[in-house]
Design goal:
single chain; four-stranded mixed β-sheet; 23% helix
Length: 87
Amino acid sequence: MKKGIHPENYRLVAFKDMSNEQVFLTKSTVATRETITVDGVEYPVVKVEISNTSHPFYTGKMKLVDTAGRVDKYMNRYKDHYDKKKK
């Protein structure tokens, strides 16, 4: 690795998922103004709207939004293709 191009000020930072209050610690150089206490230790905190603990892809709770029956039209059009794959 090249010397002098990576930041020197890595420290433990708490990232808080605001949708489910989950907190995880990782090293980061991000600037923060707020702190949070985790297990009796105070850490700088970054509030995020979504993380792997709340994102539908990672939780398996993906929702299929059907707008004006487009999904039904698609499924009807390609029904034979999907039926062949299941066999």
